[in-house]
Amino acid sequence: MNTTACLPSPAVPAGPFPAEVETIIAALESRPRPLVERHRLPRRRHRVLASLYLYSRHGSPPAELFTRHVNAKGLGFLVDGLLPVGHGATVVLVDFEGQLRSIRCTILRCGLVASGWYEGACYFNREQMCFAHSAP
To answer: Which residues contact 51 (CB under 8 A, 6 or more apart)?
Structure first.
């Protein structure tokens, strides 16, 4: 199945994220790192506005994701509503080269981190080499 099928384009921010989002992301990134790194693949910072279309909410407007980091297997983000863990979705975002990508994924986690804000992650159903780790 083509993972770059066209869906409505997300609104990519022209500048930084809203101040509240930047503050929460900065707080998340300032946490101490675990002694043992569990991530198999390195993550790369990737700050874009993405759209998440949940299959279980067919016809509903997409969730707006403020992405934090990405690798070939998944995406970390901040969102203003609780997402159902384990549910399938399509995430639409711009890659490092500015190309619009539509990627099938599954919600891995979504937990409250600040009043009205949730930190989450999704894993891509197929590895996305356009997000493979490389020097920025």
So the answer is: 7, 8, 10, 62, 63, 64, 65, 91, 92, 93
